[in-house]
Design goal:
The complex is a heterodimer of chains A (about 30) and B (about 425). Chain A is an all-beta fold and about 30 residues long. Chain A has strands at about 1-10, 15, 20-25, 30. Chain A is built from no helices and four strands. The chains are: A mainly beta (about 30), B alpha+beta (about 425).
Amino acid sequence: STIVLVFEAPKDFEFAVNTGQKIKVGEALGDV
Amino acid sequence: LLSTWRETPTQWYPLPVALGALLLIVIQYRRRVLEKEVHVDEGGHEVVRLKGPWTVHVLGALPLRNLSRLWGYLNSLELPIWLRPAGFRLYAWIFGCNLSEMDPEDLTQYASLGDFFYRKLKNGARPVADSILVSPADGKILHFGTIRNGRVEQIKGSTYSLDALLGVERPGSSQPTDVEFPKRDMDEVNDRHFADINGIEYSLHQLLGTHAPPSPTASGTTTPTHETPSTPNSQPGVHRDMEDNVPTPVARKHGEQIDASVPSDVSLPEQVSHDAEVAAEMGMRPFLDRAQRRPSMSVKPGNALYFVVIYLAPGDYHRFHSPAAWVVEKRRHFVGDLFSVSPWMVRRLENLFVLNERVALLGRWRYGFFGMVPVGATNVGSIKINFDQALRTNVGSRKPPPTGTFTEAVYAAASPVLRGQPLTKAQEIGGFCLG
């Protein structure tokens, strides 16, 4: 199963993850 | 025949090199042209088709949906208590589950593998980061980035359409207000208490939010799990669950939308002040005008559209949570195939995420549009949304509709203030079930 998030955010939004990285519920995905 | 086979001489001769080269060029040209070819329907919307190597086409020929439901049935069978600890420990060892964070930890309390798969976590097992966007699930980041020209990158060099992923309003479909229920369907409702509209069964209570006289359930229809209680908050288009008092939406089929919004003359319940507080916490304006309330994928100046894809492996915790504080205004259920969504398949099957069955939750957050799309797979075809009791995924016995069509429900009646289903960051939304 997969979850796709699509969202609008300011252009200074930055992801806090890397491709292939394991992640858990509640961990930061990104921030402005 | 035997003598002919034995006595006919075989003569070998070389093919002209130029002819072979020409053949290769033609094959390559045809392949490139076909790859770039985009099929569109009468409305100009892209029609997604199965594309990929021969292995993908072989998988596409399998009855994946039936296999998925069979898998779900087998895993719903109750296991003997003596077998549960050893069986679940073996599963946990193979797929790397952390048994110490489950609630409850006692393995004998999980009646089946399906129960174990949909396990809960202990309170505090997942601390929530102080960030505007957090992970909705345990898993692996497959891909992330910016959406350009309405295309989402599946892998490097391969994209799929954002419209195909989330769905678009089709010609003939109206907005969820001021729409009359079709006369043909009203006849069916009167006759049977349940209506079967274009392949979707509706409970009359859920459909209209009114009290219908009790009548026998027609054969081949479902039985409602809850009756609509008579409460001061009962409103047209709203069905409140008796157990958890969660409002469920009114389902509507493409082009047959039904008003699920709260009429202006209905007195607002006490929930209004609470919702206003939630709105303030989210940085949103309550009572937005209708144009602002609708999810829109046109971004504001200074903003951009982003995406992230998270893959949940078989051993992962399979409930999903809200990635941010936002309001879900509608959901679109796309009935599709149920291919595996493993990274191996993602690399091979183009348009995988717009071919599979999925539920698109669309709404808004403090920066504008927000969408969350749980995508099913062969082993986990069932998607649950806690605040949407009407949603049924991976349902058999009916011919699936064409790829790209969807059924839609609006949550406008869930909160009179926010005109949608408000969710706080890390709040549990639902999950994936086996089969």
